[in-house]
Amino acid sequence: MKEKYKVYLRSPKWKKLREKVLERDEHQCRTCASSDELHVCHRTFERIYHEKLSDLITLCRPCHDAIKCAVERRKNTEVKIELKNYVRTTPRYIPPAHEEKMPLR
Description:
- By secondary structure, the protein is an alpha+beta fold.
- The protein has a single domain, classed as His-Me finger endonuclease fold (3-Layer(aba) Sandwich), CATH 3.40.1800.
- It is built from 3 helices and 2 strands.
- A two-stranded antiparallel ribbon has the order 1-2.
């Protein structure tokens, strides 16, 4: 799985999807609004390799690491969670039901 995922992250499909997410999120971290060290991260892996824009989010490295740490702590307590439970809604947030209707800025 890890090798397939690494190949996917280098694919033209992922690069195009990644750029759409960065544009939607105005090239800012969705939790702290930083524009440094941005990564497009999965909020859920339910549709891995066939993601919707709403499955992905822009996070800076520190916020990503903090959320990942919280997720790992929760895994150790055997409680299933997803990243989407840790990211607060911001004014820039586009709800999944509206993502197809709203143009990217």
